[in-house]
Amino acid sequence: MNKINLISLILLLPIIGSAIVLILNQMPDYKIAFTAVLTISAITIVIINFFNKTIVEKEVEVVVEKKVYIENKSEEDKTIEEANELENAVNLIDDIDGKTNQKKYINTQLSKIAKNFNLDQIVFYLKQDNDKYKILGEYALTMEDNLEFSVGEGLSGQVVKDKKSLYLTDIPEGYITIISGLGNGNPKSLFIVPAFFDDEVIGLAEFASLSEIDEAKRKLIEIMLEKIAINLVNVK
Fold first, then answer.
1. CATH code, domain carrying 193
2. Which of 73, 89, 105 is the last residue of a domain?
3. Exposed e or buried b for every residue in 114-149, given b needs 16+ CB within 10 A?
4. How many domains does the chain have?
5. Which of 32, 66, 89 is the C-terminal boundary of a domain?
6. Within 13 Å, how many C-alpha atoms sit on residue 227's CB side?
7. Alpha helices per DSSP H over the chain
8. I need a surface site. Which of 9, 12, 110, 111 has the fewest CB within 10 A?
């Protein structure tokens, strides 16, 4: 029994008791008196239940409104947090001062990304005049077997062809090797991202990590690479 029903019962008992005493005094015929008592009791119960229902409905309405407010507040806070993360990520990438060459610029930016997202290895390829993509910069690269690729060739070539990022947690054996304090090994995750300028894939970056790269980080990396691509076309 909830609190409201208990209060209703306590209020109901003296009302019924008083009604019974009054009716028995006024109506000697016990059948008529008994019927009158039942009628009064029923009416009283109906009235109390009506008010109980109204109170319960109002309480439910308040709870629902509070839940909606909390959910909306949570979404608002999440949106603000995401906007701040995006702004911080974009600001992390340097603008061009006109004195830095492409290789120096890209190596500096890749190092920042690696340290900010705890990535273990990054390779950046730039499109050449012969439509091949040749390595321009890197972070912690230990092997230089794949210095260039063509459109459609291998995983990176397919990403260029599809113009769409590719995230893998099942890396082909020997595709890339990471050397760390724990020794040599395959990365646990690989994120391959095309770099666009005017809808043209002018470059491509491979981000490798010994841990998984969550979706939020991948979105930020894509945006940062977009800024890098815009800057690269202005650097000689």
1. 3.30.450.40
2. 89
3. beebebbbbbbbbbeeeebbebbbbbbbeeeeeeeb
4. 2
5. 89
6. 20
7. 3-26, 30-92, 102-117, 154-162, 215-232
8. 9
**15 within 8 A of 44, measured Cβ to Cβ:** yes
Over the range 47-85, which residues count as b (16 or more CB within 10 Å of their CB) and which as e?
A: ebeeebeeeeeeeeeeeeeeeeeeeeeeeeeeeeeeeee
SS3 of residue 171 by DSSP: coil
129-145 confidence digits (pLDDT tens)? 988 999 999 998 876 66
Distance CA 131, CA 128 (A): 5
Q: What are 108-120's pLDDT values in tens digits?
A: 999 999 999 999 9
Q: Which domain holds residue 71?
A: 3-89
Those residues whose C-beta lies under 8 Å from the C-beta of residue 103, and which sit 6 or more positions away, are 136, 137
Sequence letter at residue 98: G
Same domain, 220 and 143: yes
Q: Model-level pTM greater than 0.85?
A: no
Q: Are residues 43 and 106 in the same domain?
A: no
41-75 pLDDT, tens digit per residue, is 666 666 666 555 565 566 666 666 666 656 665 66
